Amino acid sequence: MPVSDFLEVLSNYDIAGAYWVNLKLTFFAAIFAFVLGTVLAMMRISPVPSLQLAGAGYVNLVRNTPLTIVMASGILVLWPQLGVQFADDFTTNFFWLAVLALTIYHASFVTESIRSGVNTVPVGQAEAARAIGLSFLPAARLVILPQAFRGAIAPLGNTLIALIKNSTVAAAASNNEVAVLMAEMIENDANYVVPIFLTIAAGFVIIVVPVGLLTTYLSRRLAVSR
């Protein structure tokens, strides 16, 4: 199989455009999942039992539900049954439904990552905050969370890497991302199944490896001193 022939096959497809869809899904879902995960982490460490129960219930339920089910629920329930619609355009609406599903699913992992970061904060820090009269929310915002985020860099990085790879599940929401393109490529050019698969896999390696290296560096650089 001449390399030139395979390169010609690749030129017939917008591979960069497909990866761009995955990156956009990852970008927006990562931001929203971080915000939601932080709120849920606050609930899990709060002194209010009902909030602890609600946070733990969300994490245990969503984390043990397959992402495909979460994604399909958004497409088959939220939109047609409940009328949840983010845009009149079909493609844009399905994009944001996929972002919502990715956010809901990965927020549970963000929650546990931040909670693990809270465990790296010395107990004396929280006790000192209470000693100077800070209530739970100010103490968490000013003392606990800033240090917890530093201690949670590594697990948050792992969650981000998982999100990058899981963005391919958006194929279930009719998003033209790289998994859909790969299926189309294999269907149209079945003689190049292995090279196509390796090319797509290499693209994810190129994206994921720098993220892993960066989070490893930052976790060591910003580790909480104990």
From TrEMBL:
Pfam families: BPD_transp_1. It comes from Ruania alba. It comes from the Bacteria. Residues 19-215 form the ABC transmembrane type-1 domain. GO terms for biological process: amino acid transport. This is Amino acid ABC transporter membrane protein 1, PAAT family. InterPro entries: AA_ABC_transptr_permease_3TM (IPR010065), ArtM/GltK/GlnP/TcyL/YhdX-like (IPR043429), MetI-like (IPR000515), MetI-like_sf (IPR035906). It is a multi-pass membrane protein. CDD domains: TM_PBP2. NCBIfam families: HEQRo_perm_3TM. Keywords: Amino-acid transport, Cell membrane, Membrane, Transmembrane, Transmembrane helix, Transport. Belongs to the binding-protein-dependent transport system permease family. HisMQ subfamily. Its main location: membrane. The chain crosses the membrane at residues 20-43, 64-82, 94-111, 192-218.
